[in-house]
Amino acid sequence: MTLLLMMVFSTLLNRQAFAARLVAERTGELHANQAQMSKYVEQLELSQAALKKRTREMTELAQDYKTQKELAETSEKSKSEFLASMSHEIRTPMTGVLGMADILLETNLDPLQRENVLKIKSAGRSLLTILNDILDLSKMDAGRLEIEAIDFNLGTVITDAVDLVRDKAEEKGLLLSVEMPKTVPVSVRGDPTRIRQVLINLVGNAVKFTHTGSVALRVRHEARDDGYLLRFEVADSGIGIPAEIQASLFEDFTQADTSTSRRYEGTGLGLAISKRLTQLMGGEIGVDSEEGEGSVFWFTVNVEAGRETVSKSDKPTEAAAFQARRSLRILIAEDNGLNQMILKSLLEPLGHELTVVASGMGAVEAVKGASFDLILMDIRMPELDGPDATQAIRRMDGERGRIPIIAVTADVMDENVRHYAQVGMNATVFKPINRAELITAMDEVLGEDVHLRTSAPPATEAPAPASPQGADEEAEQTPQEVVAFLANLDGVVGGKGS
């Protein structure tokens, strides 16, 4: 019994020891798990704190991005408004300068006077070119310059570009030629305005920097699945360009060397703008030149095959004279006295019956009380601006609400021009006013060829000598016109016109 009891007791002791060891092991494991859990909890708390911090930072970044975006949009809007305002403020006095130059050219001037007026007009045109370059560059920087896709006649575009510099080439005794094989497609689809702009830049530069010899424009093409790749080359026998300068020619505000900015007119923007335009049209631009050996400037553009056959345009030039088949009743809404005088000088000789008002409200009241064939509507006017006046007229019943309205403005921003069309204006003509463009727009909105182009002597030709009495009258009349012009310029520069 004793032995049995000892065995039972020993078994119980062993079980107790085993249980104690098991409890100790489980307790140790529990402590280890608790420690690990505490570590995990601590890490989770740290992660939550980091996540909260990151969330706060992302929230702040998102708010900052929103703020910066709003500032950028406000800045871009302010920039666009500033550019539109500056364009308006510069073009308005230039309208007066160029308009009065055109008026003077139609009077009996002696050769020296005519030459001086032509120089004034040329200088004004140069200022407008610089302004247009800066506006184009700004629109491209903002990504707001759009490339058109319309059918056009390639021959017309080339002729227009070359004709603009032909007189300058002839003055310098340069041979100006165009090489365009008959295999080159004529009716294509693309942006004729921008292709013409690049051509004018390249051909104009070639004539500017070439003193003797020739300038040749060569046109080639390569068929593509979706149309054609057009390649234009302008080769000249001019001064050439050093190799180390060529890479920087297409950068903003760059000319071949600093001395050219004094010897040759220009801002150095033409080639930079041409590069951006060719890239927007899916092409490239470059130059091959050696100093003293002439240059070949080239560019390529992608165009589609024309969907419609476009014949070569017989677009009238600025110097063309016109006759009207019939007299039109035209309402002119313009608040600036000088601009009124310029429009009158363009339209009265054609026999049109003109009514002039100085505000948008005056235009609305005039339409209520009389019948008109056409309205030339200024944009910025007191009481009621041009777009609001147009909307008021469009709300009228019958024929009055359908009178063709042409916007005549110094504002050339694309988005504003689209707005004019949206409010009911049928076309837009920009200041300074080009006689041919104005008359073409008038015929288009009327849907009728009211005006016929007639032959006219070039503006550079001096008129036949006047009689002594006529000469005395001219000596009296011309200063009076100039005095009136200078007096009206005060109002123009003060920002009264648009």
Protein described:
With 498 residues, the chain is α/β, with parallel strands linked by helices. It folds into two domains: 85-142 and 316-493, Response regulator (Rossmann fold, 3-Layer(aba) Sandwich), CATH 3.40.50; 150-305, Histidine kinase-like ATPase, C-terminal domain (Heat Shock Protein 90), CATH 3.30.565.10. The chain has helices at 2-105, 111-141, 154-171, 192-208, 243-246, 260-263, 270-280, 337-347, 360-369, 386-394, 414-422, 435-446, 468-493, and strands at 150-153, 175-179, 187-190, 214-224, 227-236, 285-289, 295-305, 321-324, 329-333, 353-357, 374-378, 405-409, 427-430, 451-454. Strands 1, 2, 3, 4, 5, 6 and 7 form a seven-stranded mixed beta sheet that branches. Strands 10-9-11-12-13 form a five-stranded parallel beta sheet, with helices on both faces. The chain has a two-stranded antiparallel ribbon with strand order 8-14. Strand 11, helix 10 and strand 12 form a beta-alpha-beta unit. The protein is elongated.
